[in-house]
Amino acid sequence: MPVQVVVREAEVTDSPADLALLDDGERARAGRKREAAPFVTGHALVRRLLGELLERDPAGLTFARRCTTCGSELHGKPSLVDLPGWHFSLSYTASLAVVAVAEGVEVGVDTEDLTDADFEGFAGATLSRDEVASFEGLSGRDLLVARARVWARKESVLKATGHGLVVDPSEVLVTGPLDAPALRAWRAEEPAPPAVSILDLDLRTESHRAAVAGLTDEPLEVITA
Ligand SMILES: CC(C)(COP(=O)(O)OP(=O)(O)OC[C@H]1O[C@@H](n2cnc3c(N)ncnc32)[C@H](O)[C@@H]1OP(=O)(O)O)[C@@H](O)C(=O)NCCC(=O)NCCS
Questions:
Q1: CA 61, CA 175: separation in Å to the nearest integer?
Q2: What SS3 state is found at 118?
Q3: Any residues with CB less than 8 A from the CB of 136 and at least 6 apart, and which?
Q4: pLDDT digits over 97-151, tens only?
Q5: Statement: the pTM of the whole predicted model exceeds 0.90
Q6: Order of strands across the sheet with 208-214?
C-alpha cells in the first residue's frame, strides 16, 4: 500500500504572522541568520501544516532534535516531541520552503534552486563516477534541471535517514536525471537504511526542483496540501 506523504510549498515572504507562530528558540535562531525570512517562512510552514493535520495549535507544537551521527540533542533531524508516530522534513532556499509530513514512516525532503547547481565542480562534489554518464549530452538549463533533480533525490534520502551531509552524497547513488527516482546503491560506511522510496515533487515554481524520500519499501503517494 502506498505511503501517503503530505507536501506543501510556500514562497519566502517577510511575514509578521509567520514570525508570531515561532517559539522563543526559533525566533532566537531566526535573529542570528543573515536572512531571517527563509527560516521564518520554513518553520511557520512546518507549524501550520502539522497543526492542520494533527488538529493542534501550530504555535503550541514542540520539537526536539537528535543527531543520527553523534547522538547530540542540540542538532540533527527534528521531530515532534509528543507525537512520535508523525514524521516531517523541511527544506528551504532564499525564495522557497517545502515541507513533507508522513505518519509511521521517516521522511526527508529537499529542494534545490537551479542557480545553486550552476557550478563547475558539481560532479566532483556530488556524483560517484558511475553516475556521471547519465548527465552526458545535457547542457544549459537541461543540465541545471538534471543536477538539481539528482541532488534533491540524494539529499532527501540523507535527510530521511538523518545523516545529512555527514554522509558524502557521492556515496549515495540514485538513478539518473531522466530515469524514475530510486536509490541504486549505498556505499557509505554508515549503515544503509533497510528500504528507501523516492519521488520527484512537482513544484509550482520552475526555478527549483525537489524530491521526497521515505524509509519504506512501499511506493510514496504525494498529497499536495
Ligand atoms: C541536513 C542538511 C543536509 C540540510 O542542509 P541544507 O540543504 O542547507 O538545508 P535544507 O533547507 O534542505 O534543510 C534544513 C532543515 O533540515 C532539517 N535538518 C537539520 N539537520 C537534519 C538532519 N541531520 N537530518 C534531517 N533533517 C535535518 C532542519 O529542519 C533544517 O532546518 P533548520 O536548520 O532551519 O532547523 C545539513 O544541514 C547537514 O548536513 N546537517 C548535518 C550536519 C551535522 O549533523 N553535523 C554534525 C554531525 S555530529
A1: 37
A2: coil
A3: none
A4: 999 999 999 999 999 999 999 999 999 999 999 999 999 999 999 999 999 999 9
A5: yes
A6: 107-113, 208-214, 197-201
Query: Which three-class secondary structure state does DSSP give residue 155?
Result: helix
CATH code linked to domain 3-224: 3.90.470.20
C-alpha cell read off for 105 = 514512516
Q: What is the DSSP letter of 122?
A: H
Ligand 1: residue whose CA is nearest its atom 35: 78
Q: Is 159 in the pocket of ligand 1 (CB under 6 A)?
A: yes
Shortest-distance atom of ligand 1 to CA 111: 12
- Does 165 sit in the ligand 1 pocket, CB within 6 Å? yes
Torsion angle of the four alpha carbons 158, 160, 161, 164, in this order, in degrees rounded to the nearest 10: 40
* Domains in the chain: boundaries: 3-224
List CB contacts of 43: < 8 A, sequence separation 6 or more. Answer: 18, 21, 22, 26, 30, 90
| Cell, residue 119 | 557550478
The answer to whether 78 and 65 have CB atoms below 8 angstroms apart is yes
Q: Which residues pair with 200 in a beta bridge?
A: 211
